[in-house]
Amino acid sequence: MHAGALRPVKTTFLDFEQPIADLESKIEELRFVQDESAVDISEEISRLEVKRQALTKDIYAKLTPWQIAQVARHPQRPYTFDYVQHMFSDFQELHGDRAFADDKAIVGGLARFNGRSCMVIGHQKGRDTKEKILRNFGMPRPEGYRKALRMMKLAEKFAIPIFTFVDTPGAYPGIDAEERGQSEAIGHNLYVMAELRVPIISTIIGEGGSGGALAIAVADQQLMMQFSTYSVISPEGCASILWKSADKAPEAAETMGITAARLKAQGLIDKIVNEPIGGAHRDPRAGAQSLKRALQETLKQLSEHSPEVLLEKRFERLMSYGKFKELAA
Amino acid sequence: MSWLTKLLPPKIKRDQPIKKSMPEGLWIKCEACEAVLYRSDIESSQYVCPKCGHHKRIRARHRLDLLLDPEGRFELGSEVLPVDPLKFKDSKKYADRLAAAFEDTGESDALIVMQGAVCNVPLVVAAFEFDFLGGSMGSVVGERFVRGVKAAYEQGLPFVCFTATGGARMQEGLFSLMQMAKTTASITRLSAKRLPFVTILTDPTMGGVSASFAFMGDVVIAEPGALIGFAGPRVIEQTVREKLPEGFQRSEFLIEKGAIDMIVDRRELRERLGQVLTLLSGQPAINS
């Protein structure tokens, strides 16, 4: 393998990254010139690279919730399989719900995490058009949730911990999905996950889209990648219902509180996992390393509990969700 | 009304709650068969059209009133009241929407829980109030539900829930999504004690409530003609870009697909529910 193969493919830039893109193309230009030039301009190039890094850091430090939503949906964002590749070994993919089909929007299987057996389950989006369609843009149908449920029960049977990776715009809103019981499939997962006798650690790696996300995210610990989002409805969906216009999505993203920082402050998630400068898509390996450290620590903590204690803590945690006031009796 | 608004499909969620169960005047027109009915006639038939059997939407308190034996009933969880955790504001403030919904319905949130009996079978029953912000599930709905389940669990009673909801309450953000996990998890406790959990899905039962505990009933009952599903018909139509089949997501469609156990006419519900509950818990038959 030559060194160039490790370099990420050309980055797709988001709107607000235009200044970084401009600097990038300038650097590329200089590199091109340097190959043929007698004058040494490598110093200038490294000066610009430092500047680019600082600019990226600066822009990413001030992202609005709507911009974070764009990063969470970035076409080059690492997906479940990317994390599997970087964090687990001996992955054996499992398929199908044993009743209807193999939904490719949810993937999973057995693997080793630092040598220890575990079950990995996650939403999977596609990279190119063909794969996007195959994976239904990461929107599962009932058979996807039932496949996940089957894998979770399998993990319980063999007492191995479960890692889930959440990245979906939502459960698929289609005629066939309704016919086969999308609601029941999601509800059933929520029910079973509440009393599954093994540790469940869930991480939002991209989009945490509503019930379709929650259906594999009832967990003992909820982690979130720094530039991922988790919400009850997409900003566009919320805007089109409450503002009657999808153009108000940035406002909806702001007010709904969909970012890791905001959700952590509200106690709705447990841990934020830092991403490399400029987001995990700029360096998927570093992103995965950072997540692996967090998962290691979390699994270690959860492994100290007996199944009974684990379940009791999970139940208390689930019951504690919600903000309300109470009249004195 | 312009020709355009006439063409658009009816909304699941109404902006202005219309108190359909308390109409003015002597006559009522059935929305389904357009028969003109005496108000007293439809009242005595529990707001089911005597001509075509159409089940009108009714208010939560009315439902509980029709279901429960008159003696010994009392409310649970009414001490739990809504707050505005996100200081949410769209075209209106959430706080103002809550106040307006209270004004319109006299209810403080979208779920009413009561303990009582059906045909002398003691139970805890919850009912969604659709006229309160579309029966949406936020923190208060979740907490009242869980308190109802807890009361049932502690006293060894069955738990029954009527659903009538558009789904999760957007104005509470992720707090409302988590109510799906919270309510559904609470039900596992009933199973551990073999206490029956029965859901009665009424028009409409959608989104976050449909996709949490609604289909987790030991027995799942639906009222005739109720719209029940995960995604709303408009969303599906926009996604698949084709016309939805006739009767799609209605109770009759769901029973055909194997998603629910039975469709029960509102006028027979008390007795049928009493039978189901006694059969599940091995008690002798009710005398009705």
Short description:
With 329 residues, chain A is of the alpha/beta class. Helix content of chain A is 47%, strand content 16%.
Structure description:
The complex is a heterodimer of chains A (329) and B (288). With 329 residues, chain A is an alpha/beta fold. Chain A is 47% helix and 16% strand. The relative contact order of chain A is 0.12. The N terminus of chain A is likely disordered. Helices cover 34% and strands 18% of the residues of chain B. In chain B, the strands form two sheets. In chain B, strands 3, 5, 6, 7, 8, 9, 10 and 11 form an eight-stranded mixed sheet that branches. In chain B, strands 1-2 form a two-stranded antiparallel sheet. Chain B has 288 residues and is α/β, with parallel strands linked by helices. Chain B starts with a helix and ends in an 8-residue tail after the last helix. Chains A and B meet through helix 7, helix 8, helix 9, helix 10 and helix 11 of A and strand 4, helix 5, helix 6, helix 7 and strand 10 of B. Strand 9 of chain A pairs antiparallel with strand 4 of chain B.
